[in-house]
Amino acid sequence: xxxxxxxxxxxxxxxxxxxxxxxxxxxxxxxxxxxxxxxxxxxxxxxxxxxxxxxxxxxxxxxxxxxxxxxxxxxxxxxxxxxxxxxxxxxxxxxxxxxxxxxxxxxxxxxxxxxxxxxxxxxxxxxxxxxxxxxxxxxxxxxxxxxxxxxxxxxxxxxxxxxxxxxxxxxxxxxxxxxxxxxxxxxxxxxxxxxxxxxxxxxxxxxxxxxxxxxxxxxxxxxxxxxxxxxxxxxxxxxxxxxxxxxxxxxxxxxxxxxxxxxxxxxxxxxxxxxxxxxxxxxxxxxxxxxxxxxxxxxxxxxxxxxxxxxxxxxxxxxxxxxxxxxxxxxxxxxxxxxxxxxxxxxxxxxxxxxxxxxxxxxxxxxxxxxxxxxxxxxxxxxxxxxxxxxxxxxxxxxxxxxxxxxxxxxxxxxxxxxxxxxxxxxxxxxxxxxxxxxxxxxxxxxxxxxxxxxxxxxxxxxx
Length: 464
Fold this sequence. Notes:
This protein is mostly beta strands. It contains 4 helices and 35 strands.
């Protein structure tokens, strides 16, 4: 007995508590699994009497190909495997693949579970998975095969940061938020599909994804973090109306970005939002924009065309250093008809090389087709047809089936709305009747061809 007490007092506090915990568990639940190695993988008790989680074995480095079964057996009893615990496989640099059984019960992969598994190239995730913890796959630099199950609703910060070999990812519809640095540093990530359910893209979520050349930002998006797409390969950007402010550094250092279109609803472009986008050429700004902040377009030396749909220059606050030291000397400013003189007298627009009117649209209704042509190609063409069945949309000279343009077109029972560049041809059924006009495309009879004609034509179509 004396020796027993001496042994207990000689133990450190942590070891004593662990021993006490095991003793109590064995007394209260003698049949419950305490800890077990099963086919080379360590498990420990989960939340229920029949559940276990994958645990990291002390001093053991998992390697090669590993399969996580749906359950493990001990003393003729089955225990469901329900989770991969915190850091279970972290730093296992010789681990090459992980497969979860088809009937897996795993719903959670916890924080840092596979962090820094630098040779892990393939993971077959369980179909029941709902949650992926923070840094779960961070620095898995060899990971090239990963499909997120449709049931995933939660992805933690930096979950896939520095997965440098990952080529593509589709975010499931149940995910509403991509937090800070979710895919930051994924240099080979070239394709990303975002769901319409997505509300938030966090700070630096895709920063450093240098092969990401395009992204369709969903209309559901209401929050965008600072630096979300900085240092990416984006070539063209359509910024959705659902986000009122373009945050700081959101698209800074995008060296391939040439065209930016802000949809109606955007109100502010924050400081350094497009800093050092060196080949940015064309910018389209909607009437809703109220402010361009300090440094928003600093070191964007090649801006040549800025389209402002603001009739009064004073309605848009422009910081004196919004374009750096001064507006690029070759920039041509396009403004609404009749506003040219006002912009020529206003700062900083008086620095522009030229101030011209915005290109107008030509609307030509014909039997079975509505032709919309503009003076020059531009990106601020928005159309809405109510109670009109649209069968085909074509841009330029190539016909494209409407089904192939889901990111441009949204339809409900009565309305089809879309944005596209000019020229645009819409095959609509029915398009009947004609309007007398003084020149081709003049629908409302004001002897001009402009956006008002499109509005008048839509009203005409609604009556048919």
